[in-house]
Automatic annotation (TrEMBL):
GO terms for molecular function: NF-kappaB binding. This is COMM domain-containing protein 6. It comes from Rynchops niger (Black skimmer). It comes from the Eukaryota. Pfam families: COMM_domain. Residues 120-171 form the COMM domain.
Amino acid sequence: AADKINLIPQDFFAELCEQIIQHLNHKIPGVNIAELCQRIQMSGIEINVGDLAKIANTISFLFSTAARNNLSTEELVATLGNAVSALPKHAVQVIRHVWNEQGKSISVSEDARNMATMGQFVDIKWKLGVAMSSDTCRSLKYPYVTVTLKVADPSGQITDKSFEMTIPQFK
């Protein structure tokens, strides 16, 4: 993930780190990796969602481990310097700043750790539709419900899960 961090501009990397801290503090349900990736791509940077998700997971692990071990900003930066020599200078500066400003607020209670092992429901959207006909069937005229669930997985990545049901299935 360290080589991919080089691709991300400092402002986007800072935003990612701050969202991860907010997620770890249970202030937001997760980090919308797809939306952030799209914004980075629109700025002209070539990065895919999978690579950005790996970076987010790495930074999340870094912050949660630092919180669990109650590391100071200097201890965290020293550990980063010893462990990851390939980490770009701007990334270390952002991590130092974010950890210094917000790192101490991460709560690592036993309940929070247990809760983090499952996904979190964020939002639901549904719509009612009627299929009138198709290439293979001239007269359908059956209503259906399309449901989209927005879920934050344990790492904080937000994903959409969509499915269709007949009206009796929906009831």
